[in-house]
Design brief:
heterodimer; A: 301 residues; alpha/beta; Rossmann fold; Alpha-Beta Plaits; 2 domains; six-stranded mixed beta sheet; four-stranded antiparallel beta sheet; elongated; B: 259 residues; mainly alpha; two-stranded antiparallel sheet; 2 strands; 73% helix
Chain lengths: 301, 259
């Protein structure tokens, strides 16, 4: 079977609130799939239904070919979880905790190898109570991967990580993907999704508002922008007229969306060069997933 | 086989936490031992014997049997309440639920661990009574004490389990448990001689889950002949235990309750 996750028409209500509204997507074997959205968008509810913790009100859900609500021990043996928040007994060491979990699975990784992967080798014999928040999160991840899962769920795994820890964590996930693990990741960090995910679905108010690879999503957000500082000597209106590019002035910054990046830029630069201006703070910016996110969720004002 | 192996590992994991926590050692061992020394020095000189359910029992046997059972109930009932509510509210139970661990392993591991710590407490208490207060036991008494301990750990942990749904924080579990055990102990012939209590209260407490097993333990330790085993504690605590387990079956939850 090529798809590790199949979701069709998934709907979940809490009273009058529709937390997940007619959501459909598939996750292929071996890919990192990202569910992107703000807090309250329905990410965790969706993931908890896929993990078997909650039941859908409507729709069909298959994880590794099984309805998660009916997934028994053999199914759980193939799935790894990193929940949004769980805590551990502070009096046990990292190794003791990971070892306990290793015993639940039929094909566990070695404890040493797992700690190496999550970057906790030097904390192996430290009690959980003495770890920092980010280090505890890594213990969570260690418990998620100790059973050599085919499919790993990660619910906002890098919350509370510093930037360098986040980079290391990404490298680790890419390593898992190379080793054949399929990953469903939720995050509210655009950069994380853009960097890691083969495909992304953006959730807003319980609905999928956009889906695709990060490149195809970014294409949705239109085109490249040029920006530079506004200086008194520069007549922006004349510039727009003569170059045929619609420049906008927002405060101290002049910007324009470029239809044809190369020729537009060339015209702009030739014009200012002839007029004898210096462009300070010149930037040519490709859209990021942030822009797509703001566009598709209607957050852009 | 896998179930037993995992339960033993879980019990071992719990024992490690027990030995690393000052709170469990102080409340679980030092407090019952301290009470034993205290009550025995206060009342040991005044009364040679104390009447319990129709027999006169030596004061040291009265306090050894009573305070040991008190310690077992405190450790088991409070222990399971704190462990399960704490693990549930921290998301630990939910996390276990998502692994291939059979769902009974967590509970089996708890009960097994509480049984081991209860036996440990009993050994300490009997040793203190023997070396400090010249209490000697007949060989038969050990079997009776063992049987009562199995009964007590089963019934008290079942009762704790049944209450977990009502308790939403581990702080609350840590105060409700000891409070209930101490109140119950005052009317069950643990701290006070039963003949100081009014008859109606004695009758009432004989249907509660502590008095019958306290009396059983005290008789097993004091009697000079016979097995020391009587049926009544097994009936009363058996009913409490089974009913509690049935309630727990219906109201147990793996999900954190505090939102």
């Amino acid at each position: 079977m090529a798809n590790v996750i199949e979701v069709e028409g998934l709907t979940k209500r809490f009273g009058s609130l529709v937390a997940v509204n007619d959501v459909s997507f598939t996750v292929e074997r071996g890919e990192i799939f990202g569910l992107l959205g703000k807090n309250g968008a329905g990410k965790t509810t969706t993931v908890e239904i896929l993990e078997g913790y909650q039941s859908p009100d409507e729709g069909r859900v298959q994880v590794l070919g099984v309805d998660p609500k009916k997934g028994g021990g053999a199914w759980k043996d193939r799935v790894g979880l990193v929940l949004q928040d769980s805590d551990f007994d502070p009096s046990h060491t990292v190794t003791e905790t990971v070892k306990l979990f290793a015993g639940f699975f039929s094909h566990p990784k070695s404890v040493a190898e797992t700690l190496e992967l999550v970057g906790l080798s030097d904390k192996a014999n430290v009690r959980i109570g003495r770890l920092s928040g980010g280090q505890r999160r890594r213990v969570d991840v260690a418990l998620g991967i100790i059973g050599s899962p085919e499919l790993l769920f990660l619910d906002e795994p890098t919350t509370g990580f510093d930037p360098s820890a986040r980079r290391e964590f990404w490298t680790m996930l890419e390593g898992l993907r190379t080793a054949g693990t399929s990953i469903l990741l939720t995050t509210h960090y655009m950069e994380e999704a853009q960097h890691l995910c083969d495909r992304i679905a953006i959730l807003a108010a319980g609905r999928i508002v956009a889906e695709g690879t990060s490149t195809s999503l970014i294409a949705l957000a239109g085109t490249t922008t040029v920006r530079f500082d506004a200086v008194g000597a520069l007549d922006v209106e004349a510039l727009s007229r003569e170059t045929g590019i619609a420049f906008r002035v927002e405060g101290d910054v002049v910007s324009a969306t470029l239809e044809h990046v190369q020729s537009d830029l060339l015209r702009l630069l030739q014009h200012v060069e002839r007029a004898g201006h210096e462009l300070d703070g010149l930037e040519v910016v490709r859209p990021t997933l942030d822009d797509v996110f703001l566009d598709v969720t209607g957050e852009r004002t | 086989m896998r179930f037993i192996r995992l339960s033993l590992r879980q019990a071992e994991y719990n024992l490690v936490a027990y030995t690393r926590s000052a709170r469990t050692v102080i409340f679980g061992v030092l407090m019952p031992v301290g009470f034993l020394a205290l009550f025995n020095s206060v009342f040991g000189g005044k009364f040679k014997t104390i009447p319990v359910d129709g027999h006169n029992i030596s004061t040291i046997a009265f306090y050894t049997g009573g305070l040991t059972t008190y310690g077992v109930m405190l450790g088991t009932f409070t222990g399971i309440l704190v462990a399960i509510v704490g693990a549930r509210e921290a998301g630990w139970l939910k996390r276990f639920r998502g692994t291939p661990m059979p769902s009974g392993v967590f509970l089996a591991g708890e009960i097994l661990y509480l049984f081991v710590t209860s036996l440990g407490l009993i050994i300490v208490m009997l040793a203190v009574s023997h070396f400090g207060y010249h209490l000697s036991l007949r060989a038969d008494a050990y079997l009776a004490i063992f049987c009562y301990t199995v009964l007590g750990v089963f019934a008290f942990s079942a009762m704790g389990l049944a209450l977990t749904r009502l308790i939403t924080t581990s702080e609350m579990a840590g105060s409700v448990g000891p409070f209930a055990v101490v109140i119950l102990s005052f009317i069950s012939g643990v701290f006070l001689a039963p003949n100081l209590l009014p008859q109606w209260l004695l009758t009432f407490s004989s249907y509660l889950p502590l008095q019958p097993i306290v009396s059983g333990m005290q008789h097993a330790i004091a009697l000079s002949s016979g097995s020391g085993l009587v049926l009544r504690p097994f009936i009363v605590l058996g009913i409490w235990g089974v009913v509690s387990f049935v309630i727990a079956q219906f109201n147990f939850t793996w999900e954190p309750q505090r939102q």
